[in-house]
């Protein structure tokens, strides 16, 4: 077996290679003068593990090229971050179900797919090969433990993220709740934990993804008003679009961490252990 990766997943691929004891194949990436992408893989074996986060449209094309380059081997595709996953239904007439389009295109030429903390696990059915979700909530819990906060309160920004938050909180047996919007009047909305009082608490808001940071910034402002002692944020996928990092720091969030599913300077958490465990379990099945 050999491991290959696309350009934006190189660090995670190297970590997985080390933990699995499977060598990396060398990769060359370039562009043709018209902007089209080119890649070349080093020597491959009869099995290839492709590590590729779809962080943008170029990485989608690069993933398709990598799968094709490995067409003589049996391929497992690990997608640490699946872009386009949040357009998972038709919100208006004439729109695509983008996650379906992407999942279908990635299914050709692979035998198996894994996605890390996909936005909606139900959308894995759009792959035409067996596809499973891997959660890195335990790794995020490990990171929260390292922050050495006093009796932290783990908060999901909405009810949909409560399962993820519960899995994070289980690592330290910490309190866990979700933020709920309560309309006070026509103009006024209060966002507060459903049952736990945040006053005086060290709060960690956890989510699958931070994109613009709008969701977390609003929550942080409300929690500060409610007297939280400190507010931290941790997520699986740190997309951090449109100045999100600055927006979150300006909203009083003391620390922001994400994982290497979307490699950037806030990737303090690694998905490698969870991915390696899932791949090994699959091999031994
Ligand atoms: C929503 O369902 C997701 O779990 C995230 O809360 C959301 O996508 C984050 O987006 P943003 O950072 O742009 O508010």
Written description of the protein model:
The protein has 285 residues and is of the alpha/beta class. The protein folds into two domains: 2-135 and 270-283, Rossmann fold (3-Layer(aba) Sandwich), CATH 3.40.50.2020; 137-260, Rossmann fold (3-Layer(aba) Sandwich), CATH 3.40.50. Helices cover 29% and strands 27% of the residues. The chain is built from eight helices and 14 strands. The strands form three sheets. The chain has a seven-stranded mixed β-sheet with strand order 10-9-8-11-12-13-14. Strands 1-4-5-6-7 form a five-stranded parallel β-sheet, sandwiched between helices. A two-stranded antiparallel sheet has the order 2-3. It is globular, with a radius of gyration of 20 Å.
C-alpha Rg (nearest Å):
20 Å
Question: How far apart are the termini?
Answer: 17 Å
Helix content: 25-40%
Under CATH at level 1, the class of the largest domain stands as Alpha Beta
Helices and strands in order:
Elements lengths: L1 E4 L4 H11 L6 E5 L5 E5 L5 E5 L5 H13 L4 E6 L18 H10 L4 E5 L14 E4 L2 H10 L6 E4 L5 H9 L4 E9 L5 E5 L8 E9 L3 H12 L4 E9 L5 H7 L4 E5 L7 E3 L2 H12 L2
Parallel strand pairs: 1-4, 4-5, 5-6, 6-7, 8-9, 8-11, 11-12, 12-13, 13-14
Antiparallel strand pairs: 2-3, 9-10
Helix pairs in contact: 1-8, 4-5, 6-7
The site of ribose-5-phosphate has 13 residues, from strand 11 and helix 6.
Describe, in short, the structure shown.
The chain is α/β, with parallel strands linked by helices and 285 residues long.
């Amino acid at each position: 077996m050999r491991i290959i990766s696309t350009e934006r997943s190189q660090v995670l691929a190297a970590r997985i290679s080390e933990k699995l004891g499977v060598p990396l194949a060398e990769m060359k990436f370039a562009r043709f003068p018209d902007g089209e992408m080119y890649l070349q893989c080093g020597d491959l074996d009869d099995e290839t593990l492709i590590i590729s986060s779809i962080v943008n449209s170029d990485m989608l094309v690069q993933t398709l090229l990598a799968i094709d380059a490995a067409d003589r081997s049996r391929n497992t595709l690990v997608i640490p971050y699946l872009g386009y996953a949040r357009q998972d239904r038709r919100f208006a007439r004439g729109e695509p179900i983008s996650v379906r389009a992407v999942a279908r295109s990635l299914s050709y030429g692979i035998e198996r797919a894994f996605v890390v903390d996909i936005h909606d696990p139900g959308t894995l059915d759009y792959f035409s090969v067996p596809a499973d979700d891997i959660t890195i909530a335990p790794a995020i819990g490990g990171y929260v433990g390292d922050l050495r906060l006093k009796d932290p309160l783990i908060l999901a920004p909405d009810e949909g993220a409560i399962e993820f938050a519960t899995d994070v909180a289980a690592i330290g047996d910490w309190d866990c709740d979700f933020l709920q919007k309560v309309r006070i009047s026509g103009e006024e909305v209060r966002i507060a934990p459903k049952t736990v009082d945040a006053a005086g608490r060290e709060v960690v808001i956890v989510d699958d993804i931070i994109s613009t940071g709008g969701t977390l910034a609003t929550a942080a402002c409300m929690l500060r008003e409610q007297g939280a002692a400190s507010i931290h944020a941790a997520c699986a996928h740190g997309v951090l679009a449109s100045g999100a990092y600055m927006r979150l720091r300006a909203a009083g969030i003391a620390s922001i961490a994400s994982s290497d599913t979307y490699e950037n300077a806030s990737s303090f958490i690694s998905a490698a252990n969870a991915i390696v465990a899932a791949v090994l379990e699959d091999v031994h099945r």
